UniProtKB/TrEMBL annotation:
It comes from Papaver atlanticum. It comes from the Eukaryota. Pfam families: DUF7885 (PF25372). GO terms for biological process: SCF-dependent proteasomal ubiquitin-dependent protein catabolic process. GO terms for cellular component: SCF ubiquitin ligase complex. This is F-box/LRR-repeat protein 15-like leucin rich repeat domain-containing protein. Transmembrane segments: none annotated. Residues 118-309 form the F-box/LRR-repeat protein 15-like leucin rich repeat domain. InterPro entries: FBXL15_LRR, Leu-rich_rpt_Cys-con_subtyp, LRR_dom_sf.
Length: 378
């Protein structure tokens, strides 16, 4: 019986057993070709990255350095890939990506984490052959604004980008990304010390997730981050060394109305004024980390309690200047008006103080709710 290729492909795709699928190509060259064209995802790991659940293609290869020849053979054999990971291939040269010009048109996801030898030349090869990319990860890569701009212009459908520890990326590259890729939903740029945030001005409303911890953000840059209006998750932890005064207040000036998760951990210069502005401008916040923000006093905490009525979780690792139990009771009472009374995490209290504060809080909450109900009815 001489079955058509489409029939053989349908049979292969219906095989449930991994052993059967791996054995399919051993029948003959034709069946091997069918098997090769059906593969959609490949993950290669060098000695830097190993995983116990890796696929047969990567098992046994993590003890060797992945070379340009390995990638060439891989891409010429599997020409219909939609997902490719070369993470940890630290010695892979630019030439290792040359075949992407010919066989990368179907790729939607590309991971080049820690590919230290890939330069802008290699990233330009990605740009020229992988126009349908939706997700890329360049963690600790040596990509510069030139390479990022080339990718942004050629891969306008990008939705998720990881640039963590890409030290050569500045606002110029970010501007190209935010203006060319109008479907961008997520960007991770942790520890990119050359980024101030100004490149995000006028970004798309599709941008909902930003991680910019330990960046060199400026107040105008924070305004740019939220300028699209669609942001739901924002991580600005550890900005104390660059943000001073009320720079964080820009978050609450009207553009972050959809923000649900905000991480300001280690933002030691966060002021009461900034906290009040954020609490009034981000009314749908559900989770807010203020760990090690020591300068926030009762004024800031009460503002959170009265304005953020959807807040479910507040994190504070230390109570800073708040040592008096009555002060703590006022704070917890204000916050306990929220839905998430059991999710207020304050470290540094004795168990006895915690119990006393909870008892006093319960009384204050009941009284406050009665007063608010009377105001609503009047």
């Amino acid at each position: 019986m001489n079955l058509l290729d489409d029939c053989l492909l349908d049979i292969f795709q219906r095989l449930d057993s991994r052993i059967d699928r791996d054995s399919f190509g051993l029948t003959c060259h034709r069946w091997l070709r069918i098997q090769n064209t059906s593969r959609r995802s490949v993950q290669l790991y060098s000695s830097l990255f190993t995983q116990s659940n890796s696929s047969p293609l990567s098992q046994g290869s993590f003890n060797i350095n992945i070379s340009a020849f390995h990638v060439y053979k891989l891409l010429t054999r599997f020409q219909q890939l939609t997902s490719l990971s070369l993470s940890g291939c630290t010695e892979l040269p630019d030439s290792g990506l040359s075949q992407l010009q010919f066989f990368g048109s179907n790729l939607q996801s590309l991971n080049l984490d820690c590919c230290f030898e890939i330069s802008d030349t290699g990233f330009s090869l990605v740009a020229s052959g992988c126009s349908n990319l939706k997700s890329v990860s360049f963690y600790r890569c040596n990509i510069t604004d030139i390479g990022l701009t080339a990718i942004a212009k050629s891969c306008s459908s990008l939705q998720a980008v990881n640039l963590s520890y890409c030290m050569n990326i500045s606002d110029y590259g970010i501007r190209s990304l935010s203006q060319e890729c109008r479907q961008l939903r997520s960007i991770i740029m942790s520890h990119c010390r050359s980024i101030t945030g100004s490149g995000f001005n006028g970004c798309s409303e599709t941008l909902i997730h930003v991680e910019a911890d330990s960046c060199k953000l400026e107040p105008d840059g924070i305004s740019g981050l939220v300028s699209g209006g669609g942001l739901e998750y924002l991580n600005l932890s550890d900005l104390s060394w660059c943000i001073h005064g009320d720079g964080l207040a820009r978050i609450g000036q009207g553009s972050a109305v959809n923000l649900r998760v905000l991480n300001l951990r280690m933002c030691r210069n966060a002021t009461n004024e900034a906290i009040m502005m954020i609490s009034k401008g981000c009314l749908v916040l559900q989770e807010w980390s203020l760990a090690f923000c020591h300068d926030i006093s009762i004024t800031g905490w009460v503002a959170i309690g009265w304005n953020c009525n959807n807040l479910e979780f507040v994190r504070r690792e230390s109570i800073g200047e708040i040592h008096d139990l009555n002060q703590l009771t006022l704070i917890t009472a204000g916050l306990s008006l929220l839905f998430g009374i059991n999710h207020i995490l304050m470290m540094g209290l004795s168990s006895e103080d915690t119990l006393q504060a909870r008892a006093a809080t319960d009384r204050n909450v009941r009284n406050s709710r009665r007063r608010k109900k009377k105001v609503a009815l009047s």
